[in-house]
Amino acid sequence: MAFNSQAAAAYLQNWEPYRPVPGYGAVKSTVASDAAAAALAQEAQAKSGLAGLALNQLGAQALAKQEQDFVAEQNALTRRSQGLRLATQLLGPSYEEATATANLGVSDPFALIEKFGKLNDWQRTAELKQATTSNAYASELFKLLNS
């Protein structure tokens, strides 16, 4: 294809610098993209704020549950210690001998429960001794009656 000088001359005669088209001045602007980015940023900020509130609520619920469990455990220990106190009052005079055998001089409730178990073992042993002694007397009585 050959160079056409008349085409070049015509182009130069009609050439104009860039000017915006009337009525479409905002076409090249970034208003819409900036607004969309701002909306996404606001949505992300709102979601992170809600997530923070949710985490605070979950933490508060977990703390309340821990506190309830602690109070329940304290109440259970109080009931156990009161039960042990009542049991020691019911033992009456034999309590001094039993405490000497079981060594109940402790302040820890769990150790006290363990010691109370030893006291029960001591009582069973004492009752067994008494029963075997009574059985021996009964057998001797039967021998005497049968002879």
Structure report:
- 80% of the residues lie in helices and 0% in strands.
- With 147 residues, the chain is mostly helical.
- It has a domain at 45-146.
- Helix 2 (31-91) runs parallel beside helix 4.
- The longest helix has 61 residues, at 31-91.
- The mean pLDDT is 77.
Give the helices and strands, then pairings.
Layout: H1 5-14, H2 31-91, H3 94-102, H4 109-146
Helix pairs in contact: 2-4, 3-4
The share of residues in extended strands comes to under 5%
Give the count of helical stretches.
Answer: 4
Instruction: Give a quick account of the main beta sheet: strands, pairing sense, barrel closure.
Output: none
Question: What is the residue-averaged pLDDT?
Answer: 77
**Quick one: overall form?**
rod-shaped
Count every beta strand, where a strand is a DSSP E run of 2 or more residues: 0
First-residue to last-residue Cα separation: 153 Å
Oligomer: single chain
Give me the strand/helix succession: HHHH
Q: Percent of residues in helical segments?
A: over 70%
Residue ranges: pLDDT <50 for 5 or more in a row?
A: none
Structural class, by secondary structure, is mainly alpha
Radius of gyration: 48 Å
